[in-house]
Design brief:
- By secondary structure, this protein is mostly beta strands.
- It is built from no helices and 11 strands.
- Strand 7 (66-71) and strand 8 (76-81) form a beta hairpin.
- The protein starts with a strand and ends with a strand.
Length: 121
């Protein structure tokens, strides 16, 4: 599976963005997708995950503001970012894995290249 993330940009606090992750490969529909982010000087962290059946997980700091979705037919995943805060500024990565769900980034073998999200105050 190859992944390509897009949709990042510069937005003011309170604004919104939609990140997209386009996958190539035959087994995308059977895998888990996750979005991770890495802020300057910080470790990469999990933001949200979604299973092939649509079950989701969010880190506490983004609950109610971010939404993760996927379209298996289009082999695309999405992360909707609403009510953005300066603390959300980071490079956002999409990742995918087969098999059981995981919140551990080292268990995701497939990664996109990252897309920059910058939130100004």
């Amino acid at each position: 599976v190859q992944l390509q993330a897009s949709g990042g940009g510069l937005v003011q606090a309170g604004g919104s963005l939609r990140l997209s992750c386009t996958a190539s490969g035959r087994t995308f529909s059977y895998g888990f997708m996750g979005w991770f982010r890495q802020a300057p000087g910080k470790e990469r962290e999990l933001v949200a995950t979604i299973s092939s059946g649509g079950s989701t997980y969010y880190r506490d700091s983004v609950k109610g503001r971010f939404s993760i979705l996927r379209d298996n037919a289009k082999k695309e995943g999405y992360l909707y970012l609403d009510s953005l805060e300066p603390e959300d500024t980071a490079v956002y990565y999409c990742a995918a894995k087969r098999g059981v769900s995981s919140l551990v980034q080292s268990e995701y073998p497939y990664w996109g290249q990252g897309t920059q999200v910058t939130v100004s105050s």
